[in-house]
Amino acid sequence: MLPFETLGLRSEIVRAVTERGYSTPTPVQARAIPEILSGRDMLAGAQTGTGKTAGFTLPLLQRLAATVRQGKAPRALVLTPTRELALQVAESIRDYGRYLSLRNTVIFGGVSINPQIDSLSRGTDIIIATPGRLLDHCQQRTVDLSQIEILVLDEVDRMLDMGFINDIRKVIRLLPVKRQNLMFSATYSDDIRKLAHGVLKSPVEVEVAPRNTTIESVAQSVYLVPKETKRALLSHLIRTNDWPQVLVFTRTKHGANRLTKQLQDDSITAAAIHGNKSQSARVAALTGFKSGQVRALVATEVAARGLDIKELPYVVNFELPNVPEDYVHRIGRTGRAGATGEAISLVASDESGLLKDIERLIRKSIRRDALPEISSPPKNSSPSTDVDQSQLVRQHANQRDQARRPSSQKNASGHGDRRLQGNRRFARPGSR
Ligand code: AMP
Fold first, then answer.
1. What is the pLDDT, as a whole number, of residue 362?
2. Whole-angstrom Cα distance, residue 199 to residue 278?
3. Of 103, 91, 158, which is closest to residue 130 (Cα–Cα)?
4. What is residue 20's DSSP assignment?
5. What are the tens digits of pLDDT across the range 170-213?
6. Distant-in-sequence, close-in-space partners of 210: CB < 8 Å, separation ≥ 6
7. Domain boundary among 154, 179, 211
8. Whose alpha carbon is nearest atom 5 of ligand 1?
9. Minimum-distance ligand 1 atom for the alpha carbon of 26
10. Can you tell me which atom of ligand 1 is nearest the CA of 53?
11. Of 159, 184, 211, which residue is a domain's last?
12. Number of domains the chain is built from
């Protein structure tokens, strides 16, 4: 028997998962799937990169597929903090549920509400939503939450950080009392415990990595570097190590824009992803990055939340986050599902307090690397490194269609982002 079958999943789901290229369940999947299938509530401490999305979507699909929807009202609701995460969860649901006949609708703000209303009015089994727009639909009575059997709160810690607690409570008040509740969070605070206490009934607790410890497979290092040298150092690291793909975190949207421009001036293809960008520009930047067209994706915290970039080898903290837990989230972008990766932080003297807080949280000290001699970049004489976002938007539409083809038409691994995997190169220890 295949390992996924031993968890009690039906053949249509095992087939979809196998075609996706997964042979063995990750630890959170092995522990969560049988419990969710049995109908229990769950509090899971699992950060992004652990395979948590399949951990809840596979049993959710199976439970819904056991009965048929009566009428149009949805039977499962997944709440996520960001639209990117909502889209990714929806993609997983579509992917893993391709041999089942369940419908889903994605709901988030910043885009026209009408297509969402159309989709809801046709009848849907699963809603994946950010809280604000979902409440708009509730107010307009374009969604009926009275038939929800399963509620998933994904990345709850981030939803609370983003101030969604009241919206979450409002949504929960609209749900039937009898339902299954699943909560996923990378970190725990008193607020999360309080929310869990109010929402979950005798939950099984699943914790895959010790709380707030960073993923073992990620090599972490720090450069202590003057603020004004950071940009040259980053550009030097990308060029001399020949990094094919790097996700760079800045603290502000303005900083992300500025750094993107500077990298482009250094002949490195770069795109920014942050809250001031339109949804289509964000999706296009991400798609360009996944396809290998964009070498450096410069992101702010919130925009990067939920980015699912397979086997991303390098994450750079251009600035340390103000909240130490965010460091754990950020570096969770690499070393996903057992892959190895590197997280490098550029730390200026005024950030030493933040670095101490992070080391206290993760309970280990991060290796300090000596600054290399920085070579100057070639002058960008060609405009081709300036990634035209509207061009990316158009390309994204094509790539998306391609990504939706049955996996038999894709590459042998079943993944659509072959170039990213193919380009992957890891710096050997000490090669920097
Ligand atoms: P998540 O933690 O849900 O964001 O998933 C992290 C990454 O792991 C995603 O790219 C998934 O496609 C991948 N993944 C999930 N489950 C498995 C599995 N059983 N085997 C290999 N990769 C997986």
1. 81
2. 34
3. 158
4. T
5. 999 999 999 999 999 987 777 888 999 999 999 999 877 544 45
6. none
7. 211
8. 51
9. 19
10. 3
11. 211
12. 2
